Amino acid sequence: MWNLSLYCNNFMKSLALRLFVTPTNNTFIQFFRYLFVGGFSAFIDIGSLFIMTSVLHINYLISAALAFIFGTITNYIISTMWIFKSKGNRKKELFLFIAIGITGLLWNELIIWSLVSKIGLFYLTAKLISTALVLFWNFGMRKKFVF
Questions:
Q1: What b/e readout covers 69-95, taking b as 16+ CB neighbours within 10 angstroms?
Q2: Structural domain contains residue 125
Q3: Would residue 4 count as lying in a domain?
């Protein structure tokens, strides 16, 4: 019984190290980590959107664009530190990261505008839907073209 407990404990430590600590090129693990980074970046993005729109009374589309930029900056910093290994050319990586982010921003704006203006959803509900959809775009494109 003790050996099984020790084995399980070692397995869990090894799994935790692989999921959270050890540098990796494994797409599954990178996507797992990206969900955490994306969640934190989404918190920055959506929180900024709420503050700018509901507290500062800035138009929701302008707020959404600015908030998306804040979230993208957060995402870039954490992604380069924790998820993806640099290929060595930071300027090129940053350019591609931003280019993909701008495309994601366009998707974000189009989705939010469509859901708010055409369907009548509340802007934060539209933002949550947009965030979920754009997450897959951003990860896939950044994994393929940047890192």
A1: bbbbebbbebbbeebbeeeeeeeebee
A2: yes
A3: no
Q: What is the pLDDT of residues 24-51, one digit of tens each?
A: 888 899 989 988 998 899 899 999 999 9
Its domain, for residue 88, covers 25-146
As a whole number of angstroms, the distance between CA 43 and CA 32 comes to 17
Nearest CA to 70 out of 43, 92, 32 is that of: 43
Neighbours of 4 (CB within 10 A): 8
pLDDT band at 146 (very low <50, low <70, confident <90, very high): confident
In a domain, 14, yes or no: no
pTM of full prediction above 0.85 = no
Any domain includes 75: yes
